Amino acid sequence: MATLIAGGLTNREIAEALGISERTAGNHVQHILNKLGFRSRARIAVWAVAHGLFTLPRE
Length: 59
Description:
Layout: H1 2-6, H2 11-18, H3 22-36, H4 41-50
Helix pairs in contact: 2-3
């Protein structure tokens, strides 16, 4: 889930990728925010990169 958020996907896009409802995707995002003590999806993305879960594309 964190890798999809880091990739810039919306809740709708995450839901489609995982075969879940958009509401469920949003709930998962909110749970991640709460668990990690973050307030934004951008912070989840930074966390995912810092922990090697997502690699930024190179140009």
